[in-house]
């Protein structure tokens, strides 16, 4: 970098210094480098030009050598010489390679592709030529069709290339690089045929292939016949096949190591293994002589010569010499088992399959076992019914054999079954249906019953059985409760022969009853009847009872009040409630309503269910006006329900923004991990972790203890390497809040920041690093867990070297300004033998360049961090809700219990004294002020005596419901226009840039059309809204309940719409509910839930105007007027025959229907856009988007004329 020094010298000569000198040198150096790069690019272009010319000459020479004619404009070849290609040799040449060579040759000589099929046909021989002759003319002349047919004939298909790729082997004389290229070619052709274009389709292909390898053969054939194109299709076909063939029981289980049967001793726990070396167990059996107490390895008879038929053993039966005939075979009367091993071996007949096929076409199962009884037979313990037996898993047997004495008489089947023994004889045995529970099979099976098998149960190759090397590792003996209780009693009798004082005291202790709420002051029938008559809230109901009329509410609900035995009873029926059952509900006066709710919600037989189930329970027997709201408030104010609500039911508050730190180690996050087990050889059991907020650079120190002094000393050790930070963020641990830490912070001028209690997310940066560090330690210290502290430096290097997702750079790069040389860089140097020669720079130049690099890197990291923070906040805030508390509110606090800090519960209620920050609150907890985050708080609803309301006129539970904005979809708002105009021409805003003449002209125009420019909607005659549905069945939705406090305002709005003739009374079979949605300012939106009606409405495809196209239409204008139609939808009338479909339910007047287009209809925007397009036809300088339109003109004169024309059109 001599030029940089020269530029510095030149700058000093002209009087520059400091930063100006550096900027001057950098600019001159940049100019010099740019000139050098331009020269290099110019030389490269000259070189490329020469190479192109040389290639062009070569191509011309090759073209002259090829004896091909030039193609004329019609695409036909005027004179094509015979291609200089050897013909295809059938059974000798590789067709795929030959076609590739043909295509490359055809492209080189510039043959038109429509002639390729004809030329290729002249080179075909053998089977290829035969195939070409059988193709239809149209396919024979199409090269792609011919190529496809040839490849398919020679098995160059998707499956063919897959097999070539999977089974390819290096050929003789072929190098490994050539072999790899050949395999790559197979893979390319395979993926090309299955149309793999991206990673997802490649993954889908590999999963499909692996799934076929894991499926049974019959299922593989079934799937290949249907040619699934995705994993979803393949799994659908496989599930369909499994459902039809019941193949779920044949699914391959994951192989687990074979578990030998554990040796047990009398009186020991059947589930705990016992060392067989320390016990005498008769379960050990010799496979040579059959004796117990020793194994075949030490058997005395192992090498003795036996007679022709001394004693043969098998899994199923013992055959002695006395029971054998002259041929060495057992007698017919001899009951045989799973296998008979016959000596000599020439009597054994081999079977080629699992069954023997008879001449008649039937099959007999083979009953066999391993003829050579080795020392590793798959024998385990199992259960037949309720009896414990030894179980042999015999792969040479195709059925199941059980000892006859283990089978009950009721389990025998009225049939006998034939089977073929290993010696070739056919025998009949009784069959029984038994229940077995073994590590190889659990369930009910049909088994052959034999008198004297060597094993109580022999499992053959039946459907659903596990392999011999794959018993269920989690299988255990089922608990026998009677035996366990009997064993416990015997043990107690043996040990506790004397009754102790505690036992006697416990025996004499009286039985304690459950704590339940006392229900006092149960009124008599006369008192209840008198309370009904004296209750003011029931006066109107008494009048209805005297009239005896039946009131219909909702769609088909019927209500009638009657008087029975001097008591007021409500009779209610609805086809939607228990199929029209008649409910007789006793009307409850105000005096006894709380008592009814207490029994329905608080009693021991109620279980503190929610408001919905509690309401259903009460309505089955009782009724009073406002019952649903009273029960809802009662359940919401229940102290037990509030204290036991799940933590996840309380919504979190939105995430706050953390300040972005741009200076390394200006703020650090500190935490302690531990205690960690096991303790290291140095006595370390804790880890002090430190993370920098700007660079995410971590530090970790292993500590034996975490006293404040030791932690402060470790922090100062870290500060000596990276510098003293300005701020340190910790939790409220005693080591961080101690006086020693405060004094250290004061001495080094470091500000201490603390998180709120039990809210670790505030220190999420350090908590996340702690989790990563512990996971890395757990994986690295598997072999030497006591040396985990020695792994810390290596793991810290790994973390610092990896780029951070939120920053885009590694901590090393952000702190040092360069890439640190790590293991992978060293390995690359060893393999590539490359050593990057560093440029020789002066100290001044190096410092300047390093500073610039760090500034650019940190700026990029800060930008990425800001984007990541926004993204994380967006994901976090999806399920949050902004919850606020005010001073004096009672809240419950989610705190750990005194016995276990990992178990939390709601405690309180406590009073909020003040707010600290955005989401932190000071709580008065038993006289002490404590700060808690809003996520740990839940508002406590106190129950007051006057809380239960008594509405006197509410007889129907229909109307609107109140929903929160985050609980429902956004519905179109219905803003009611006033009957008398509230906005006139006086409310029009005129731009301040207009002069007096222009303002006067505008006002004259406004006065001329003052009757049009109001907020009272008119009515158009251009279009009429018609509604087309996909079904003729009326659409009905269940009405929502409306609070009493909102019914007056709802009735007022309905009266205004009736007065404006926007709605009218209705007897329609259609019904849609009303929904009141709270706004952010506290007011309510009046909406109609037409979602169910919209789902059966035929969609109107009228397009909505594009905003960019609209503004480009008036882009040349200099004068603009913006107009907003007042309730534009309400200015379009509805066809009279379709008005009944817009009906909605109210709590005061029943059903109403619209006479104009209501808000919320799916086709409302399309119809209104069509009307505006017809209205504004001919106005080139007027645009509209739904009910907003704008006028744009070049001069004020044409502007005024356009407005006059437009107002006249309206």
UniProtKB/TrEMBL annotation:
GO terms for biological process: DNA integration. Residues 245-277 are annotated as: Disordered. Pfam families: Integrase_H2C2 (PF17921), rve (PF00665), RVT_1 (PF00078). The keyword Transcription does not apply. This is Reverse transcriptase. Residues 1058-1210 form the Reverse transcriptase domain. Residues 660-819 form the Integrase catalytic domain. Transmembrane segments: none annotated. It comes from Patiria miniata. The keyword Membrane does not apply. Residues 285-301 form the CCHC-type domain. The lineage of its organism: Eukaryota, Metazoa, Echinodermata, Eleutherozoa, Asterozoa. Coiled coil: none annotated. SMART domains: ZnF_C2HC. Residues 246-255 have a biased composition (Basic and acidic residues). Gene3D superfamilies: 1.10.340.70, 3.30.70.270, DNA breaking-rejoining enzymes, HIV Type 1 Reverse Transcriptase, subunit A, domain 1, Ribonuclease H-like superfamily/Ribonuclease H. GO terms for molecular function: nucleic acid binding; zinc ion binding. Keywords: Metal-binding, Zinc, Zinc-finger.
């Amino acid at each position: 970098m001599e030029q940089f020094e020269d530029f510095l010298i030149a700058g000093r000569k002209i009087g520059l210094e400091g930063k100006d000198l550096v900027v001057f040198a950098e600019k001159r150096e940049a100019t010099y480098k740019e000139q050098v790069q331009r020269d290099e690019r110019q030389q490269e272009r000259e070189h490329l030009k020469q190479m192109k010319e040389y290639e062009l000459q070569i191509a011309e020479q090759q073209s002259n050598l090829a004896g091909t004619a030039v193609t004329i404009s019609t695409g036909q070849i005027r004179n094509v010489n015979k291609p200089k290609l050897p013909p295809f040799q059938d059974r000798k040449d590789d067709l795929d390679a030959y076609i590739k060579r043909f295509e490359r040759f055809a492209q080189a000589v510039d043959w038109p592709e429509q002639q390729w099929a004809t030329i290729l046909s002249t080179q075909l021989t053998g089977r290829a030529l035969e195939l070409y002759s059988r193709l239809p003319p149209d396919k024979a002349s199409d090269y792609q069709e011919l190529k496809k047919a040839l490849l398919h004939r020679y098995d160059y298909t998707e499956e063919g290339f897959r097999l070539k790729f999977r089974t390819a082997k290096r050929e003789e004389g072929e190098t490994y690089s050539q072999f790899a290229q050949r395999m790559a070619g197979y893979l390319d052709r395979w993926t090309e045929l299955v149309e793999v274009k991206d990673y997802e389709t490649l993954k889908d292909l590999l999963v499909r292939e692996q799934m076929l390898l894991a499926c049974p053969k019959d299922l593989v054939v079934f799937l290949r016949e249907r040619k699934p194109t995705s994993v979803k299709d393949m799994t659908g076909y496989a599930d369909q096949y499994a459902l039809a063939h019941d193949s779920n029981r044949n699914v391959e289980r994951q192989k687990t190591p074979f578990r030998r049967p554990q040796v047990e001793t009398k009186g020991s726990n059947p589930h705990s293994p016992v060392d067989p070396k320390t016990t005498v167990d008769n379960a050990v059996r010799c496979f040579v002589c059959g004796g117990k107490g020793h194994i075949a390895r030490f058997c005395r008879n192992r090498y003795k010569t036996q007679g022709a038929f001394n004693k043969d053993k098998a899994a199923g039966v013992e055959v002695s010499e006395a029971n054998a005939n002259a041929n060495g075979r057992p007698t017919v009367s001899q009951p045989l088992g799973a296998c008979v091993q016959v000596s000599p071996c020439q009597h054994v007949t081999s079977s080629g399959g699992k069954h023997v096929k008879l001449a008649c076409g039937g099959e007999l199962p083979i009953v066999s076992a391993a003829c050579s009884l080795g020392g590793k037979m798959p024998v385990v313990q199992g259960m037949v019914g309720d009896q414990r037996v030894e179980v042999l898993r015999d792969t040479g047997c195709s059925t199941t054999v059980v000892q006859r004495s283990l089978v009950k008489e009721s389990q025998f089947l009225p049939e006998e079954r034939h089977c073929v023994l290993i010696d070739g004889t056919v025998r009949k045995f009784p069959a029984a249906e038994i229940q077995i529970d073994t590590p190889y099979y659990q369930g009910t099976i049909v088994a052959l019953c034999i008198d004297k098998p060597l094993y109580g149960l022999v499992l053959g190759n039946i459907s659903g059985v596990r392999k011999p090397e794959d018993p269920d590792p989690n299988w255990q003996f089922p608990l026998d409760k009677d035996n366990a209780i009997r064993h416990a009693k015997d043990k107690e009798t043996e040990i506790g022969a004397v009754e102790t004082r505690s036992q006697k005291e416990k025996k004499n202790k009286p039985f304690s009853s459950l704590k339940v709420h006392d229900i006092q002051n149960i009124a008599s029938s006369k008192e209840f009847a008198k309370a009904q008559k004296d209750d003011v809230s029931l006066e109107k109901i008494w009048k209805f009872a005297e009239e005896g009329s039946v009131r219909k509410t909702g769609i088909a609900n019927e209500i009638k009040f009657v008087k029975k035995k001097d008591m007021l009873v409500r009779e209610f029926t609805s086809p939607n409630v228990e199929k029209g059952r008649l409910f007789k509900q006793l009307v409850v006066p105000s005096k006894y309503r709380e008592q009814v709710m207490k029994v329905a919600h608080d009693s021991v037989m109620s279980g503190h269910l929610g408001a919905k189930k509690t309401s259903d329970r009460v309505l089955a027997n009782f009724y009073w006006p406002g019952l649903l709201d009273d029960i809802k408030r009662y359940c919401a104010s229940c102290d037990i329900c509030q204290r036991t609500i799940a933590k996840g039911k309380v919504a979190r508050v939105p995430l706050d923004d953390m300040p972005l730190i741009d200076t390394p180690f200006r703020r650090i996050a500190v935490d302690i991990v531990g205690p960690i087990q096991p303790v290291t050889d140095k006595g370390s059991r804790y880890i002090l972790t430190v993370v920098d907020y700007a660079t995410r650079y971590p530090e970790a120190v292993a500590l034996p203890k975490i006293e404040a002094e030791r932690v402060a000393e470790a922090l100062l050790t870290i500060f000596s390497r990276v510098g003293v930070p300005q701020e340190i963020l910790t939790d409220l641990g005693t080591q961080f809040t101690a006086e020693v830490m405060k004094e250290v912070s004061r001495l080094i001028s470091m500000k201490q920041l603390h998180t709120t209690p039990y809210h670790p997310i505030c220190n999420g940066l350090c908590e996340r690093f702690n989790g990563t560090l512990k996971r890395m330690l757990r994986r690295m210290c598997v072999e030497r867990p006591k040396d985990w502290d020695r792994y810390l430096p290596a793991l810290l290097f790994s973390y610092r070297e990896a780029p951070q997702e939120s920053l885009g750079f590694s901590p090393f790069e952000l702190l040092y300004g360069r890439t640190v040389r790590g293991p992978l860089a060293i390995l690359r140097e060893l393999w590539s033998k490359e050593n990057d020669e560093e440029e020789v720079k002066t100290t001044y130049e190096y410092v300047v360049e390093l500073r610039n690099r760090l500034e650019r890197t940190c700026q990029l990291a800060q930008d990425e961090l800001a984007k990541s923070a926004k993204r994380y906040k967006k994901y976090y805030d999806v399920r949050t809700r902004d919850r606020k508390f005010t001073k004096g509110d009672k809240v419950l606090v989610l705190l750990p219990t005194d016995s276990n800090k990992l178990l939390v519960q709601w405690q309180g209620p406590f009073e909020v004294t003040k707010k600290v920050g955005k989401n932190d609150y000071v709580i008065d907890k038993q006289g002490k002020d404590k700060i808690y985050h809003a996520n740990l708080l839940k508002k406590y609803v106190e129950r007051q005596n006057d809380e239960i309301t008594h509405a006197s006129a509410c007889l129907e539970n229909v109307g609107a419901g109140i929903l929160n904005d985050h609980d429902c979809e956004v519905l179109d708002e219905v803003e009611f226009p006033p009957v008398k105009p509230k906005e006139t021409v006086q409310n029009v805003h005129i731009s301040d840039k207009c002069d007096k003449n222009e303002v006067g002209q505008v006002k004259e125009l406004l006065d001329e059309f003052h009757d049009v420019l109001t907020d009272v909607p008119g009515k158009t005659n251009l279009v009429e809204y018609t509604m087309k549905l996909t079904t003729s069945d009326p659409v009905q939705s269940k009405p929502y309940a409306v609070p009493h406090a909102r019914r007056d305002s709802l009735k007022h709005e309905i009266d205004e719409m009736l007065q404006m003739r926007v709605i009218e009374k209705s007897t329609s079979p259609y019904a849609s509910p009303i929904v009141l949605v709270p706004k952010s300012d506290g007011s309510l939106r009046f909406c109609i839930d037409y979602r169910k009606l919209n789902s059966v409405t035929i969609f109107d495809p009228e397009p909505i105007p594009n905003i960019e196209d609209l503004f480009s239409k008036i882009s040349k204008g200099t004068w603009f007027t913006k107009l907003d139609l007042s309730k534009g939808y309400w200015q379009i009338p509805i066809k009279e025959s379709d008005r009944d479909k817009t009906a909605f339910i109210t709590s005061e007047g029943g059903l109403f229907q619209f006479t104009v287009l209501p808000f919320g209809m799916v086709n409302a925007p399309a119809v209104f856009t069509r009307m505006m397009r017809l209205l504004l036809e001919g106005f080139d300088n007027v645009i509209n988007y739904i009910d907003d339109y704008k006028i744009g003109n070049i001069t004020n004169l044409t502007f005024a004329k356009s407005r006059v024309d437009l107002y006249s059109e309206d």
